[in-house]
Predict the 3D structure of the following.
Amino acid sequence: MSLERAIELACEKPMPRRTEHIPLDAAHNRILAVGLHSKVDDPRFDNSAMDGFAVRASDCDEAGARLHIVGTSKAGGQDLPTVEAGEACRIMTGARVPDGADAIVMVEDTEVLGESVSINGPARTNFIRRRAENLARGQEALPTGALLGPAELALAATMGHGEIEVAVKPRIAIISTGDELVRAGDELAEGQIYESNSHALASLVEEMGCEANRLDSAPDSLDELRKTLDSLTGHDAIITSGGVSMGDWDLVRRLMEEEGELVFWRMKVRPGGPPLFGTWKGTPLFGLPGNPVSSQVIFHILLAPWIQHSLGAHPELGPRLSRQVRVRLKNSVKGAEDKLCLRRIRITSEGDELVGSVHTHQGSGNLHSLVAHDGLTLLPPGTDAEAGDFVDALWLR
Ligand code: AMP
Ligand code: MG
């Protein structure tokens, strides 16, 4: 199964899509469910881009012209004078341009002499920000599916929306499986190790704008696992880690094969070959491999696009946790015969290109390789890359 086909199949079984109205204050990192149309023109009225004087440009053709000051226009002010020939009105940035004026002289180019002002620089019409030049009332400026980051939230506010309709945050259960796993900080008995995958997966789920319910790990027992999965079916999705390979104790796979609805098992990627996807009593379930690097890599390439699709994210949004870039490799990178190869690289900028370098060994159990790097190569099946070659990569974070 190729990555593309796996994403396609998973996207045929998205999480249920619900929407809710929430205040703008709570909307950071959410997905807009209904596009937003502006309630106002932006700017609402012709206003000054400079502190200075609003004038008639034709009065200022001669250097040193003297104009009579008829009043002041400040941001938020009302009751403006009209500017007639031979007159000027003091004006502040963002303040409404009074009727009659058609240009602004910046304050640095003026000298006030009692009741009048000497104009010592150009009167510019382009210092006036025109009504609706950014946005006309009724215009849709944020489409359905927009991800609400800082700029989008400010734009929603500019358009007058104090409350908006967004996709409800899905609740996703995260459970590791393995008799060897112990919660970090607890006592370790012989043969046991600290459980780590669920911490990475929970924070990835949250970064995707979902609610993570991280549970303590489940033992390698078919009965226990069945009971645990049954107890999680109230969630919008379940993510397990471990137990999906070919080993005798890989019970997530066995349970899904025998009692679940398995959609696919195994993908042609390295690391992270054995993930599975299906539903457990109607709830979408991703079984991620237990190797710590693999579980995170599979989240980035498979789960992230699936969650985005489920949330109704705009197709042009691109991957949320990563960005596809082209990098020149500093080191040679060995590919995999028939698999998409996701080596970890650190991406930096050098001169006018991005470069990718390898800093640690690449074992799928070496978590430090994900800390020391911030990118994944997308080496097509059957290709090796030499130092100096350009390759596609995902830039994480
Ligand atoms: P599995 O996929 O269950 O065969 O696990 C593969 C490897 O990953 C084994 O070395 C496990 O001990 C390790 N592993 C599995 N799950 C976790 C976890 N949640 N945290 C840390 N290591 C794990
Ligand atoms: Mg295991």
